[in-house]
Amino acid sequence: MKKKRKAIKTKNKVIGIKDIAEHAQVSIGPVDRVLHNRGGVSEATRQRILKAIEELGYKPNILASRLKSGKVYTFAVLIPKATKKIPFWQQHQEGFDRALKELEQYGIQIEVFHFYQNKEQSFKQAVDKAIAGNFDGFLIVPIFRKESDRLILHCKDQGIPVIFFDSNLQEVDALSFIGQHSHDSGKLAADILHHCLDPEEELLVVRIVEKEDNHSHFLARERGFNNFFRRQNRIIHHYAAENLNDKALKAALVHFINTHNRVKGIFVSNAIHKVASIFEEEGIHNVKLIGYDLIEENVAYLKKGVINFLINQKPQYQAYLGIKLLYEYLVLKRPIEKAYFMPLDILMKTNIDYYR
């Protein structure tokens, strides 16, 4: 006959390993192995210990352990450099700062390696520097496949966890991915424009491409957009503005709008602020415009009514969550999910002032 477990009386009491062992009716050794993910415990015993931990509300004293060991964890962050042409990347620093403020007392530090978004050689140099360092974890935007694979191989050999954010690479064994589901965000944009336009009105998909641009998620957005309409008769035009300066882009888009007067909705898979500036300069107001990101320019165009809809990617939260997940995985020994998809938030002129 099994002994009855003691009643749980944890109020105002610090729960320790001995309490867990007593509650689970095991010795201290298996509890210690489960808490530190060391194995050597049967699954039945492990489940009993985990249940005891949950019932007792046990929380490890990470700060005390950290002070005792003196261990410092340093994470490498590889992220594009914010520029005047691509200001999106400046928003992530707020997330990094927030995470470090919370975790600094637990010995968490980061080192950021910047590279230029459309320059593969710049990304290679950032990877070289990161590999040469002594890091416990990596949080990266894997824009270029070859160099990302090289970094992943290095980390796999060293047993170092890697988390992707913003951009994802299929069939790559990273610990996790943080970002939007690009395909479904494209479907969302299509759904919105579908409800805004009459059946006979046409759509245009615009992608602004530079020579070394390698953002597969831009293409995934477009596939999602197209898939929404695959069983409909809606006419969809596509325009990839390749290596055009602002003057050439303006001339090409204005010409297209003037020669396709049935186009009443435009989906911009990246850099919508460039299209919005052209619309404002040319006084184009009869075309619905939808794209991505709450950068300062886009919000201004949204409030003016030049842009009709913005899909937010939560860059600050992506950065914050990336650091937090590496901490949880390495320090707290918690399992990490394979993907953390951001909500697909739609912002308009009428609700932008209430959004943080």
Structural description of this entry:
InterPro entries: HTH_LacI (IPR000843), Lambda_DNA-bd_dom_sf (IPR010982), Peripla_BP_I (IPR028082), SBP_2_dom (IPR025997). Residues 15-69 form the HTH lacI-type domain. Keywords: DNA-binding, Transcription, Transcription regulation. It holds the Pfam family Peripla_BP_4. This is LacI family DNA-binding transcriptional regulator. The protein has 356 residues and is an alpha/beta fold. It folds into three domains: 17-59, lambda repressor-like DNA-binding domains (434 Repressor (Amino-terminal Domain), Orthogonal Bundle); 66-179 and 315-341, Response regulator (Rossmann fold, 3-Layer(aba) Sandwich), CATH 3.40.50.2300; 182-312, 3-Layer(aba) Sandwich (Rossmann fold), CATH 3.40.50.2300. 44% of the residues lie in helices and 18% in strands. It is built from 13 helices and twelve strands. The chain has helices at 17-24, 28-35, 43-56, 62-69, 92-103, 120-132, 145-158, 182-196, 216-228, 246-259, 272-282, 296-304, 315-330, and strands at residues 73-80, 108-115, 137-140, 162-165, 176-179, 202-209, 236-242, 263-268, 288-292, 309-312, 339-341, 345-347. The strands form two sheets. A six-stranded parallel beta sheet has the order 2-1-3-4-5-11. It has a six-stranded mixed beta sheet with strand order 7-6-8-9-10-12, with helices on both faces. Helix 7 (145-158) links the parallel strand 3 (137-140) and strand 4 (162-165). Helix 1 packs across helix 2 (28-35) and helix 8 packs across helix 9 (216-228). The longest helix is centred in the last third of the chain and has 16 residues, at 315-330.
